[in-house]
Amino acid sequence: MARRLYPIFLDITDRLAVVVGGGQVAERKALELLECRAQVRIVAPVATERLQSLAAEGRMEWLKRGFDPGDIDKAFMVFAATGDRAINTRVCQACAYAGVIVNRVESPEASDFLVPATLRRGQLTIAVSTGAASPALAAEIRDGFARQFGAEYADYLALLGEARLKVMREIADPQARRRVLLALAKDSSLLDVLRRDGENRAKEHVETIVARAAASAAEKEEKSHLSG
Q1: Would you say residue 199 lies in a domain?
Q2: Has residue 178 been placed in a domain?
Q3: What range does the domain containing 198 cover?
Q4: Residue 175's pLDDT band (cuts 50, 70, 90)
């Protein structure tokens, strides 16, 4: 029976992530981890030029040798990313003993977690997984989302985030807040304004929507007090 995996987004800022291996796959994992602000440790006798440069710049640690079980001490997560199945097995065994989650790149079924095909647009993250049944299909679905959700969604999410803070400050009634936030999320005209007229006009559009909603909420509250 297929495994049932629990989907989750993790904050790995300043957490130690160990990548055992120094090839292209290990490089890709290291770059993704650095992007998420993890502390990265590479364990490999040799490494790609990019990994060597990152280590020389002090952006990550490189243990220039073979794997030792002590390398995963205090690690939050581990990637077994060598081209040697025997070494990857040793890494997984060490992780099982230490209680550290591990991803074995060539053997998803032996991994504690899988890395999905991911699309990022600022605060928007879309992750697609097929449970390792077809990584190629996961990538194809992600690419379809990439065509649907363009680069402008980064600015769009930033605007919605600012609008949410403004709504929380200016509208006291929880139900009114929910109505306004839902209206903003469903308001396709905001995205159209952003695409057509730019960020400043889109911000003005948000201000107008929130101001109207705040005024309406205040009016309803006043009527409620008067009728009470």
Answers
A1: yes
A2: yes
A3: 152-227
A4: confident
Q: Please state, in angstroms and rounded to a whole number, the distance separating the CA atoms of residues 146 and 161.
A: 21
Q: Based on the domain organization, do 106 and 20 belong to the same domain?
A: yes
Q: Which tokens sit at 41? A: 């440790």
In a domain, 5, yes or no: no
Q: Is the pLDDT of residue 131 over 80?
A: yes
> Do 23 and 108 belong to one domain?
yes
Tokens of 216: 């309406």
**Structure tokens of 30?**
């290291």
Answer whether 131's CB lies under 8 Å from 2's CB: yes
How far is Cα 121 from Cα 196, in angstroms, rounded to an integer?
A: 19
- On whether residue 75 sits in a domain, the answer given is yes
- The closest of 122, 115, 108 to 159, measured between CA atoms, is 122
Quick one: average pLDDT of 79-84? 96
Residue 97: CATH number of its domain: 3.40.50.720
Which residues is 117 bridged to in the sheet? 128
**pLDDT 10s digits, 95-122:** 999 999 999 999 988 999 999 999 999 9
- Name the H helices within the chain: 24-35, 49-56, 85-98, 135-148, 152-170, 174-186, 188-197, 199-227
Is it the case that residue 213 has pLDDT exceeding 80?
A: no
Residue 213's Cβ-side half-sphere holds a number of Cα atoms within 13 Å equal to 27
Q: Which amino acid is at 184?
A: L
Check residue 114 and give its pLDDT: 94
